[in-house]
Request: fold
Amino acid sequence: MLINSDKVEGRCVWSRWKQVGSLASTQRRVLTDLNTSSTECAPKENGRYFLEVLPTEVLVTRMWFLFIYAACLVSSVPSRDTGCPAQCQCYTGIIGIGKNGYIIQSNLQNMTRIPDLSGLTSNPQPKLLRLEKKAITRVTQTDFPEGIRITRIILSNNREMKLEDGAFSNLHDSLEYLNLEITKIFFNKTLTFLRGLSRLEYLDLSFNNKYHYEFGDPNISSRLFDGLGLSSLKALKMYNSNIQSLGADVFLGIETLEELDLAGNLLPGVPDGCARLSALKVVDLSNSRFTTLKRKSFVNNKKLMTLKILYSKVTTIDPDAFVGLEKSLQVLKMQQCKLSKFPTDALKHLTALKALDLQMNPLATIPDGSLSGSFCLKDLHISQTYIKVTRNIFKGQENCIKNLYLRDMGLDNIPTESLRSLKKLQHLFLNGNEIKVLCKDSLTGIKASLLVFDNNPLARIEKGAFQNLTHPLYLEFQNTLLKDLHFTLDYDTGTFGSINVRGVSLECDCTVARLIHEGVSLSGACNAMGTQMDLRDSKLPGLLSDSCPTSESHCVRGHAYLLTVICLFVVSSVRKVIF
Reply:
């Protein structure tokens, strides 16, 4: 028995040391405050004990520390939120772009009703309810208790769901986002289940107006949103909903709309219903059936900034098709349509136009001067066309174009003369062409710092090909026929910012070591003694260090050699003087 003989105020604490587990040195102290005098502190059972007498104030301090430690342990253990519905998982997380909140979701696939949410009304956090791909058959007003503060709901892919009148009305002061994709909604009457959602900003009704092999009327004439109080609605998606026409009053009641997605429908032209939406900024009419953009198609949409008509059958654009958009339209995307003639007359008055995408159209030429409109393009996409890049093709945009896409155009050499006229060019995409050699003067005068040559049969880069260009250069050589990066040895440090050689067969040689040492960002892999190593592998510099010493090590060794020679000379001179 080990006894601490110091006794204060007659209080003692029993402590027992027990051997725990298989290690003899592992012990556990069990404290028991017996509140007895020192004369009563004696062993009670077999085992090793010792007596430690502590001052009362020390004992109280220790007990407080123990209490605080225990409280911290309890607070660090996540407790189950008793308000979370039994069939759900609830946790705090990201519920939208830049928004945190409380997420309620369930993995139960055969859920037929909205779970009881009443236990969450006292939780003040904004909430996201995710119940997509369930078997919910009905949604009513009583499913959402007042004051629950749900801001986002995703009920997509509940294929048998019936939404009752005012189903979400108890969320009138909180709901901002509602996804009802594939939920058996037909567009033959006013959508009264949306009644009262005055704060709703985003509504997705895509893949509706049809149910299995049952299709709703494709000619929509009902006032779908009239009188529902949707005064804040900004974005509406009705993608792939078997729509052939939209009457003039379909969008009555949501004139605040700024984004409309009608892609994937059977539209033969710009629907009449769009004329009412004077606040529109973005419209998507992709995958539609119309062949002509008629005159004044958007005359009432004077705030329209982005127009998407991708993967459509448009062959003709009337010269007056964009009347009304002269000061607003900034982005026009008509990728993979049927245009065989560049729409010079239709574009020339669009003073705000910044991005034009005509890739994958059967365009054979852009006549000189066709880009000399009143616009100033930053982005031009003419990839996968038959356009011949002539010397004056970019006339009128010399001080504008920053990003130029010339992918998959069958180019076997770089059209240097036309490209050197682009004084603001930053990014040049030449991937997927037939370029085999970068000659010394292939890039002369081109201002771009990002050069993309991916998927070209490029096998050789001549000395000086990157001389006098904008530095640092960012080069993309993915899936080319290059065998090494020796072309970089002709340039000073700082010439290259990054080089991407994914899909290229390289050896882990001293050129790679030099580029890594200089801080060039390399992407891809190289072969090191039969093993493929990622060029960003932290072990690679060490692997190459012995066989490829850096310039600094050369300098250190040179200085050391010079100092040795000087020392030997001095010693020799001193010896001569002495002796």
Observations:
- The helical segments are 56-76, 344-347, 416-419, 510-517, 540-545, 551-578.
- The first strand starts at residue 2 and ends at 3.
- DSSP finds six helices and 35 strands in the chain.
- Residues 2-76 form one domain.
